[in-house]
Amino acid sequence: MSGKKGTVVITGASNGFGRSTAEAFLKDGWRTFATVRGADGKNAAAAAGLRALGADVVELDVTNDASVEAAAAAIHAAAGTVDVLVNNAGNSYMGLVETFTPSAVEGQFATNVIGPLRVNRAFLGAMRERRKGLIVYVSSVVGRTTIPFMGVYAASKWAIEALAEASSYELRPFGVDVALVEPGAFGTNIGASRVSPDDPAREATYGDVAKIIGKIGAGLAAAASLRNVDEVATAILALANAPAGTRPLRTVVGGDPRIGEINALAAPLQRGILADFGLDAMLAPEPATV
After folding, report:
1. Helical H runs in the chain?
2. Would strands 56-59 and 31-36 be described as parallel, antiparallel, or unpaired?
3. Which of 22, 91, 103, 226 is spaced 20 to 30 Å from 188 by Cα?
4. In angstroms, rounded to a whole number, what is the distance separating the alpha carbons of residues 250 and 170?
5. Choosing from 20, 139, 140, 156, which is the catalytic residue?
6. Structure pTM?
7. Contact (CB, 8 A) for 37 and 6
């Protein structure tokens, strides 16, 4: 049975943006399915805390087909319909691009890119059939720009930005909205669990250049200390509560305002490119960027 506002599914809800977003939806009267990896293991305490708040906790590993399929089946059986899907689960690899082996980079993309695609496939069919729904992606400001030592992570976010924008056009005729939330640096668990390069021998050949990463880490930590993860949760909830068809494609939260400028400048150029291909009918009435 759905909550008075509807039903939301949030991936990676054990901490950070996911946990805060689950709490925000619960307070607003939504039936909230908080998905957690290791709900009966390493994240058992987090799962218990979510249940105590009223969330339906579901085991889900975005990198595993069987796990996603089982979770989606359980959620659909319990709720019937899903109104909002928040693709939040993710991780971060940080270091010199050359010092990550191909298999390591595949791991970054497995979670941040293939994971959301896998989850979407489990829920989008029902949304398209109902001609109603919202898919939210938690991206990053580095999904629109990049800085040294974050190339692998940024590449995964650039990829999800492209996939999300393409699907926003493809899903519009079915009444399904797509929204990208682009946070700046926040104090979430993703910083504490960053994955380092797996080729230290090659990293050593960079000499003093490799040491610059400390400045990047310190800068991110300083910026994160000024922000509250609830800002992102508030932005996601606002998107969910906005009327269908009016939601902006991109929303920057707590990031450099120049990212918003990039979005604003790119939107009309993108619309013009699609118009040149005769795809005007797939465009929203107004530029979907803030």
Report:
1. 16-27, 44-53, 65-79, 102-109, 115-130, 151-171, 189-192, 200-204, 213-224, 230-241, 257-276
2. parallel
3. 103
4. 17
5. 139
6. 0.93
7. no
Is 168 an annotated catalytic residue? no
Active-site residue identified among 93, 137, 156, 157: 157
Pick the CATH number of 7-282 from 3.40.50.1010, 3.10.310.30, 3.40.50.920, 3.40.50.720: 3.40.50.720
Tokens of 273: 């490119």
pLDDT, tens digit, 9 for 90 and up, residues 275-290 = 999 998 888 775 444 4
Domain boundaries in the chain? 7-282
Check: CB of residue 8 under 8 Å from CB of residue 84. Answer: yes
Residue of 92, 93, 153, 156 marked active site: 153
* 157 counts as catalytic: yes
Q: Determine the pLDDT at residue 190.
A: 64
Q: Which of 14, 20, 156, 168 does the annotation list as catalytic?
A: 14
